[in-house]
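Quick question: what would this complex look like in 3D?
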Amino acid sequence: MSEPAGRIARLALLAYPREFRREYGDEIVRCMRDMRRHGDVDRARLAGRVAADVLLTAPRMRLETLMHRSIVLTLALGIVALIAAVAILPVALVALAAVVAGAAVVIGRRHDGPLGDSPPSAGWRRCVLWGVASFAVGSAILIIDGGELSEPVWALWALTFVAGAILVGLGIVLAVSERSGRRAA
Amino acid sequence: MARPSNRTPGDVQAFLPLPASAMHIIVALAEGEKHGYAIMRDVDQLSDGAVRMGPGTLYGSLKRMIDQGLLEESDARPDSTLDDERRRYYVLTELGQRVGAAEHARLSRLLSAAQVRRLGLSTGGAT
């Protein structure tokens, strides 16, 4: 096949998906060259045959590749969504529990007022203590499981760490508000 | 060269009926390994020019058949003085041979039925 004809053949190959081109591009060009050398068709007829062939086969291959990719993409997205759901569920539960606990603390403080039974400093200390305990449990899970966390163990570990973070955070907020309350008094 | 296959006869039936292009390729490769252009030329001769595969059709079919386990690339290369050693040669796998045989049997049964019913004879068509 002459240089310009070879270039045109390579250009025609662009219609095919990249994987197919990479795999069979050289073979196809070699086959076109054989058709020209050994076949009894002239250049114009050969070009017409090849063009018709490309027009008929390339869209089908593109569609097949696209469908294959979309199936893979759908599967990948499904798996990611499942993992995200498993990961988010304990966090969401802990967040909900924290909101409920926070609301209970705030309501309790309003009802009890400044002269409640429990000492005002007990709330934040308890929060921090529970938070640290939660961190400790999480660390113990990590050590016992050897770092290779399975799905349920990972969920439990995440739960303890998130709960610990929330409780310590809540404790700090309570401590700060108590301090500012004392200053105001 | 043929890849051993664990497929059962039921799996072979799942390939049938074969597309005309696939059956032509199987028949072309029944006598041994061939490169792409040789398959194309053979199919042309086998069908008296009725099935003319372009390069895209041929290599698209070859790729599909390789993916299905019906064909594989042959490692054997002819004498480089006789042929371009960069050419890729294709050969039937054991599964490809069995699927070809099953399609042959199916088409034979169909032709027998057509003969029994004198298809084409009573209407003055080609004999």
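Answer marked as accepted. The beta strands of chain B are 34-35, 71-74, 89-92.
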